[in-house]
Amino acid sequence: MAPLEARGSVAILYHWDADGAASAAMLLQALGDAELLVPRIGFYRAEAVDTNRLRRLQPDTLLVVDYGLRQEELEKLLELSGSSQLVVVDHHLSDASSRGRIRVYNPTLTEGRGYPSTTWVLRGLLDEASDLLSVLGMAGDLEDRMVEHWAWPQVRGILEDHGWSVEALTLLGRMISACYKALDYGCVLRAPEKLLDYGSDLNAALRDEEWRQAYRSVAEEAGRLLRSAEPEEAGRVLLYRFSSSYYLASELGRILSRRNPDKIVVIHYERGDGYVEIYVRSRSADLSEALERARKSGLPAGGKSEVFAVQLPRGEAGWALEKLLEILGAR
């Protein structure tokens, strides 16, 4: 799997969404064998990983896939893992760079253009790459906006060759991502191997009952929350407040940004575990500068040019929200 050159035993730590699961599946296919790890859903830090299990595994190579960690968190993770090397494959904006025993493959940082998904990065790195997995990550992250991306002409050729539609791929991405939105870690961990079992059979994957059930459950809860949505408006910013035991900040953010394409949608989302997520998404504004300013102000923000998020204990969320609204020009 040049140029990744994973050595010895391998563990794959992957983001919980469809792009992360499809990326993990691509790496499993290339490696033949690896342990799978998912961080605590919603958190972007070394401590979000099951460090006890990681220490027991002590893999020679730890692959961190689609997770968007900052350099200092990667260094902490390498120390916690006891691994010989840590290899990052990603497409998110971050300050991560190759140094010492950390190697980073992220063309978004080096080519000056945003890559649509981590699966698309892997397509360029691996000797052989599944067509379905390559485009599934992109559909999961961009949904209908994939047709606007610079990679679309090549992606369209793949879809035409297989008779796949954007709508079907987007639906599968939503179904797989419903696992994490329902906070079902088992479903998230089973997804990469199930994707490999389905191969290129998109229709069979769409019939997966576990994913279909998660999707229905998430849709019902999202519908309930959206019916109560009453935004506060300040210029281009729309602020929504929600509370739920589901993890639906990104689901609601996607829906509300589609409904308000000229706005910056900010969601203050109270979870059932004592934490608040502040989720920011826009279909029209480049949020790269706002993301960088949030990080420089001390907020643990992770994301990319069209979306980023911050997770904090409930008691710290008020200050963080005011700071983000100031950065976005709503204060």
Mind explaining what this structure looks like?
This protein folds into two domains: 10-212, Alpha-Beta Complex (inorganic pyrophosphatase (n-terminal core)); 228-327, Diaminopimelate Epimerase, Chain A, domain 1 (Roll). α1 packs across α9 (185-198). Helix content is 47%, strand content 18%. The strands form two sheets. Strands 6-7-8-9-11-10 form a six-stranded mixed β-sheet. The chain has helices at residues 18-31, 51-57, 71-81, 107-110, 118-125, 131-142, 152-162, 166-181, 185-198, 202-206, 209-227, 249-259, 288-296, 314-327, and strands at 10-14, 35-37, 61-65, 85-89, 102-105, 232-234, 237-243, 264-270, 275-282, 301-304, 307-313. It contains 14 helices and eleven strands. β3 (61-65), α3 and β4 form a beta-alpha-beta unit. The longest helix has 19 residues, at 209-227. By secondary structure, the protein is of the alpha/beta class.
Proportion of strand residues: 15-25%
Number of strands: 11
User: What's the CATH class of the largest domain, please?
Assistant: Alpha Beta
Number of domains: 2
What series of H and E elements makes up the topology?
A: EHEHEHEEHHHHHHHHEEHEEHEEH
**pLDDT under 50 segments (min length 5)?**
none
If you compute it from the alpha carbons, what radius of gyration comes out, rounded to the nearest whole angstrom?
19 Å
Secondary structure topology:
Layout: E1 10-14, H1 18-31, E2 35-37, H2 51-57, E3 61-65, H3 71-81, E4 85-89, E5 102-105, H4 107-110, H5 118-125, H6 131-142, H7 152-162, H8 166-181, H9 185-198, H10 202-206, H11 209-227, E6 232-234, E7 237-243, H12 249-259, E8 264-270, E9 275-282, H13 288-296, E10 301-304, E11 307-313, H14 314-327
Parallel strand pairs: 1-2, 1-3, 3-4, 4-5, 7-8
Antiparallel strand pairs: 6-7, 8-9, 9-11, 10-11
